[in-house]
Amino acid sequence: MVNYLDGNIGIDQLERTFVLENNKVAYKNKIPNTIYHHKNLPAPNYSGLPYNKYVSFLDVVNPMHRMWTDARWNKLTISHGCYWKQCSFCDVSLDYIGNYQNTTAVDLVNKIEKIIKDTGITGFHFVDEAAPPKMLRALSKELIKRNLEITWWTNIRFEKTFDFDLCQIMAQSGCIAVTGGLEVASDRLLSKMKKGVDIAQVTRVTHHFSQNNIMVHAYLMYGFPTQTEQETIDSLEVVRQLFERNCIQSAFWHQFTTTIHSPIGQNPEAFSIQITGPIFEGFAQNDLYHKDVQGADHPKYTKGLNLALHNYLNNAGLQDSLQNWFDFPIPPTSHPKGLIESFLEELAIK
Ligand code: SF4
């Protein structure tokens, strides 16, 4: 901005800046951004925060949601943005997802040491969109090399790189939990949303984490465009079996909604939905309303899905019929009882 005001650059060279142009607010953002790079950012400075005055909440039974509010975690990002940036429901056109930038493990651990010095707290929540496995390996090795004892957790994609060895080294370096998107546990819809994982792969990866005592929380979704009633029930059955086999220990259902910045919001016809609102009123349009003409009546399942999950989280009702969670008739699942078991057996043979 100073360079622009000094007349050294033109208005279109500005980055991430709102300007008044012809009496209208316009956004100027030269891509790619050059004003900062993740690798050049200093450690966030939390010194002076009165940590001892913050109340530690134990407000919900969901074990992962509890971690967000119970205890103090230093917040830090391993990488900026998401290295995958393909999921069709995600805000991939925005900088915080689509602009992937990295740094080195040495730089990261230097920052970690600095933050511990500032705060005296050794718990870290790496608030990445999807922490890259390559960086997690390098980070874990660097923490072990420096003999730095911290406790940490982060968000990942359930991708196949997370084999037993990687999960083991992560656990040795202090990793206690991961969160990741299983979304709609249906291979047809996972492929439609370009998640880049399938149920078999999620089973193997979550099993590797769990074997190493790293707690796994799955983000779940229902109501994805064209999702049928059968697919919703089958998705619940996959979740039930994943809990039963201790692949996941925590999860949360979100009902799908589309945003203006996601591939679905930008091309709704390709996903067979109709956008019905809201009318843009000049500020921060994000969530859109839509009609899913081909899919099921999605809100109808909210109560039953949540009730089932609440029980599974508490290790209850795992053997109950899926019908028990709904007060209207549902179709039986089309999955065999041993679906998840069969993926784990394949792993044992390999
Ligand atoms: S949903 Fe997660 S993995 Fe997919 S593009 Fe967004 S941040 Fe990346």
TrEMBL record:
Pfam families: Radical_SAM. Keywords: Iron, Iron-sulfur, Metal-binding, S-adenosyl-L-methionine. InterPro entries: BchE-like, Elp3/MiaA/NifB-like_rSAM, rSAM, rSAM_horseshoe, rSAM_sf. Residues 68-297 form the Radical SAM core domain. Its cofactor is [4Fe-4S] cluster. One of its GO terms (cellular component) is cytosol. GO terms for molecular function: catalytic activity; iron-sulfur cluster binding; metal ion binding. This is Radical SAM core domain-containing protein.
